[in-house]
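Predicting holo structure, adenosine-5'-diphosphate bound.
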Amino acid sequence: MMTLIIAKLNRLPIKWKLVLWSSLLLFLLFAVYNLAQYWVINEWMKKQELVSMQKNMVELQDYFQEKRLALEPGNVTNTQKFLDNFNQSNQVIRILDAAGTPIITAADHLDSEWVSPKSVEHMETLNIWHLEEHLLVMRSPLVTPDFKGTLEIFNNLETFEQLSKLTLWVMLIGGAAAVLLSGLGGLVLARKLLQPVQMLAETIKNVKQKGMHERVRKVGNEDELSNLASLFNELMDQLEASFRQQKQFVEDASHELKTPISIIEGHLRLLNRWGKQEPMIVDESLTASLQEVERLKGIVQELLQLTRSEVSIPESDLEIFHMYEVIAGIVKSFSVLHPDFEFRTELEEIKSISIQMLPFHLEQTMLILLDNAVNYSLEPRNILLIGTQRGNGVQLQVIDQGIGIPESDLPHVFDRFYRVDKSRNREQGGTGLGLSIAKRIVESYGGEISISSKENQGTTVAIWFPTA
Ligand code: ADP
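Done. Tokens:
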């Protein structure tokens, strides 16, 4: 049974859990506090009642000690008058003789019959119930040189009981109202608090049904939960952008692959139809097809490189090495490969500086930049490499005096498949992927890449890596 209730409670929505817990806690708090308060008030009032009775008792004892003859049978009427005056409402004062028979009784709004007379040797205090009435009884021996008997005072605690009951009711009603209010407060608070979460859940549902462009509506305040909603929105922005990029990438890649494939297809058809009769065509078509296959191979290879450069490299695979040595090696190979070019280097400043990366990645980046410099230079065929220290890193500039890039194309040259002059560039074997691969590699090491160019004057590409 208990486990069933707990399981049910656990399944409640957070809103109701909050309400339930806040009400329960407040109820417990109120119950404990009120009980304690009720008990303290009760005890205090009882004590006050007792003290007042004791005072009466002492005063009367003093009176009878002083007025020794007050209890003589001849003086009873006077004493009766005195006691009637002395007495308070809801109280009986009774004097018993030695045999325990009442000789004087003063009663005010209280029936003296409710408590039967009794002689005592010592003072006593009792609580007595007569039907519904609660009576406090105090008895004390009354001894003067001329008299021996008992003095009884008893008191109806009716007013006290009424007050006590009233207090209890006030507390009960107050408690119930407080619990109700706290429940309501909890409900309002829960609604307010959970609004962003609810909106988040709704948006996620919408994303599932309608697509990635759904966002959480802005909730005004800047608390943790609204921040969660903003974070979700940012995440969705990023995801959407990356989705769009992926789609664009696939479209671009298929477009790039389509051209060489169509060309090869054309040549194959030609061969199929005329090839048997005309050996000239065979030769021409095969050469052209092979060229296109080479191109296809190039594109596929670069695509692979591009995806590889996106994978993060484990720290343990990185090497610390002198940038200078790698650059010098590559420049040497390039001079052999392109004897018609003049390569100059100014690398003294970075000779002793180390960087941390895969040496293969630096080589790849350098190959891309030098390839471009060679491919897009006519005359003069000069290429300059300058290494400098900049901030807490090294900068390498590859400077050519080639055809340059028009200003309107400059912002796009790092985009995948972007080529400035498509027809001419195709002849040079460009795929438009080089610079975007270089950018990805450089940025994956926390570096920077930038390009500046003037048409017909030359281009400078600068890369910067943080030092190890
Ligand atoms: P590609 O494989 O076509 O060279 P890149 O991404 O390396 O692709 O370069 C993009 C385009 O930027 C090139 O098509 C070319 O038009 C232009 N470009 C890059 N480097 C240079 C340079 N050094 N001089 C002139 N144009 C350049």
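The mean pLDDT is 87.
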